[in-house]
Amino acid sequence: MAALDDKAREPNAHQIDAKKSTIRVYSWMKVFFGDITPHRFTSEETLADFVRDNEYCCIGQSHSYNGVQVAPSLNAVLMGKSTLDFCDVDPLAKTVTCGPSTTIEQLKRELLEYDLKMFNSGNYMAQTVIGALVTGTHGYGAKATMADAVTQLTFLDGQGKIVALNRSDPSFRYAILSFGTIGPIISVTLEAASLESFQSDAWITRLSKKNALQKGSIATSWAVVPYSDPDDPLIMLHTLRQAKTGKAKKRHRPNILSWAGIATFIIERYWAIDRLLPALRRPLQRLADRLNIRSHRRTITDPRDLDYLYDPEPFLKSQRSPDILTGLFSTTHTAYNLAFHVPLDRAEEVVKFILLEVDKWRSLRFFLKSLIGVRELSDKSPLPFAGNFEGPTAAIDLFADTRDYAWLERLQREVLTQFDQVRPHWGKSAIVHEFEASLGTEEISRLRDLHRHHYPLGNLKPNDRVQRLLDLNRPMPST
Ligand SMILES: Cc1cc2nc3c(=O)[nH]c(=O)nc-3n(C[C@H](O)[C@H](O)[C@H](O)COP(=O)(O)OP(=O)(O)OC[C@H]3O[C@@H](n4cnc5c(N)ncnc54)[C@H](O)[C@@H]3O)c2cc1C
Asked: Which residues cross the membrane (predicted)?
């Protein structure tokens, strides 16, 4: 795939209608794009006929930031735009089976009908379930990597034949988090959990207070004010605990007419102000830092709330007014987001390193946007390509104005140079060979072998950076 490069390659003999009907597909925030021939499907049979006879790649909703879904000049199987969106709940087994067009929101709503929920999820729900699973999409807390909940999957091999795998198959753990190297995946079965209410606490505090405040919580995420004191940055801390009787909603915040009150008001709306007045980013944050503000809000979440992990108030955040601020000016719609995983016990060190690094880059007129997100994945995933395969990690999310996305790649490279065991997010990291060390050559070769076993003729074409990382272009042993 070529970033910011629309140079079409020579059409391949296998490609159908290549010149006639190409369209441009874009990654989220439109930084990566490629020209493809689109294909939508209404049945597994026609999909199987298609993959047997063509070279192709798979696209979900094309919401990955890093363009992992884009392989230019190819037939693209547009899963998110197809109608294979079944979603069947088995309430006794507490599982749900869904298709490649099913979105996360659809899956969550279907589960709710049976008083069930997903164990964990990312903060946006328009993605396809399968696109999210195969890129290692995560939330935070236990079982944070969504793919940990998968018990079975079926996919089509290069002959269009159905292959079904479950957790007891040795290749299962490679196939389910395989970022476009196994596909199309045509169904997945996930475990679900009973509905539950949580005590959600949100503080504005200092990093030095985090350990004490998060004690006893079952899930923690924090967001760092990037231009605050690098020795002890200002953070917004969010924890979840099992809701207990007697613990009620509470709110402690400074008087709105004090400097600290005004700063709190600004910080809580920071993402909107940041968009409107980018030049004020650093001075506003320095002011908030000096005022040393504190606040605490406790909410008891509604067990039927679909996005309680990210927005503890009832209903979806997008359903509340003023929508123009929550929608149009939120970082989701205005910033490029790059993320990677670092070992949890080194997260604070990495964040402080990033703060010092970006402050030096002021002379280059680069400013991080919004806050630095840190989600704690508190257990180990059994999936070799999950961020937390080696142990608990912190998923670090960096944001910048879209035109500045390449600076985030540089930051990723600096962190990779300074720290060991930095692992990729397959929908957000720049996919570079420096990740090879933390992924392990043995695991990489297992996925490469699996891909070659099922697609010996090479008709499934993953993204170019993925091909390079897995060395998929090397001749097959038999050729
Ligand atoms: C606003 C926003 C918020 C996000 N929040 C989070 C978050 O909270 N946590 C997090 O971890 N990530 C998050 N992400 C990242 C996002 O979850 C992933 O990038 C996800 O893959 C996007 O899903 P998609 O359906 O758009 O897949 P695409 O981007 O279209 O595809 C991703 C990969 O999946 C493959 N693929 C898709 N469908 C199939 C199939 N049927 N068979 C085989 N391969 C397939 C593609 O080839 C590609 O390699 C966010 C992204 C956005 C835009």
From this structure: none
- Residue from 1, 58, 140 to probe ligand 1 pocket by mutation (most atoms less than 8 Å from CB): 58
Query: 107 lies in a domain?
Result: yes
277: helix, strand or coil: coil
Strands 33-39 and 116-117: unpaired
pLDDT tens digits, residue range 189-208? Answer: 999 999 999 999 999 999 99
Query: Quick check: CB of 96 below 6 Å from ligand 1?
Result: no
Residue 159 lies in a domain: yes
CA distances for 60 relative to 1, 40, 130, 165, 198, angstroms: 17, 11, 8, 21, 32
CATH number of the domain bearing residue 125: 3.30.465.10
Q: Tell me the two tokens of residue 138.
A: 């995560």
Atom of ligand 1 nearest to the CA of 66: 19
Separation of CA 227 and ligand 1 centre (Å): 30
Taking only the tens place, the pLDDT of each residue in 402-417 is: 999 999 999 999 999 9
Among left, alpha and beta (phi > 0; psi -120 to 50; other), residue 39 is beta
Residue 121: how many other CB atoms lie within 10 Å: 25
Q: In this structure, is residue 415 part of a structural domain?
A: yes
